[in-house]
Write a structure and sequence with these properties.
mainly beta; Jelly Rolls; 2 domains; elongated; RmlC-like_jellyroll; DUF4437 domain-containing protein
Length: 419
Amino acid sequence: MRPHVELIQEDDYVWHGAELVGGEGRASERRLSVDEEDGSSSLRVDFHTDWGRGPGIHHANTEYYVLEGSMTYGGRRIGKGGYVYAPKGVPADAITFAEGTRILHYREYGDAGFDAVDSLAAPRWADAREDVIVIDSDAMQWDAVPNPGPMPGLFIKYLHVDPVTGFYTRLVHAQEGWADHRLAHHPCYEEAYTTQGHMEYNFGTLDLGTYFFRPARVKHGHFTSMEGGATWLLRSDGELFNWYTQNEWVRWGGEAINYGPGGGAMRWSQSSHELGGVSRRSEKDMEMLRASLEYARSQGAEEGAYVEHGLGTDASMIAIAKALDTARLQGGHGEHDHDHGHDHGHDHGHDHGHDHEVPAADWGAEPSALEHPDQRTDEHAYNWGAGRVWKQGDPIPAPILSSLPVRSRSRGRWDGDGM
């Protein structure tokens, strides 16, 4: 499966010769993310000359989206916003790209293989389904997202939706001032390339040319759309449901071997709150997050107060104190548990035990219950972060904490807020 990439700027990637089998012309590609098991890839491609190839069958579900320049498919020329979806195993028509064209290019469930055919009358693969889609997305109207979250202001253009798996590709625009004060995780993966604008969130700054690939269930959020709003080409390998978390906390620790005060071994624990103390968000950013909270409340949602991560009460300390209290209460009065330090010097004349009724500690949901029912048994059992089909009424799995994504060196800004 693909690694978690969050958040990276395309300028951090090196150029490679484009892997476009059977074509004529010169092109280079930046490999945004790659699945080394099946060849699935998300690529940024630049054409240095006119480039083209004739009809053929792709070995993967293949998508082309024009960022700048023009593409001609089957004799139809489309400029910026042009989109072609060619399912694997289905004959696709000739395609060309003009010199200087810049595109996003996706291959899913297969590699760059391409078999030339004489015409579109060539037989399809036995398991092929769907048909080629050709769209001029710039000519489409934006539709309001039916369930935009805590605030209106999200708009969408659907480019492709797989009727069987729910896999879908869409353009999404968040208008200036749109915000979501909560974190979210999903049953499917989510990836996006920013085509316009500026948005801030916990993993960094989404501006032109930034990219992420986030496996299923990885927690993310606290979105605020800044001046001019923001637009992405966004893909998911299934229907996207939002499962929300608010006022999160993280604690991690370890056991030192050769470092510590005086150079000795030590055990240590640190909270993400201990990295805070000073707000890392602008006043405008915070104003939009507070507006998101108030809108949610105005719609009848039960929402707690929004506290910027790292600045509120450290819930991990409360949990630790609760655990210590429970451990003490459960200790009992065994012969080694304590020494009264005195002799009673008398016979009570009756039996009494030192047993105490221990109050039950409420730890929330049982952790083993917070996973997909097939998490340890299905074909994805050993793939961390793999998506599963989910429908209303199924158990909702807990989010995955991902603190080790691939991050941008040049422009990404990551501050640990809501890992």
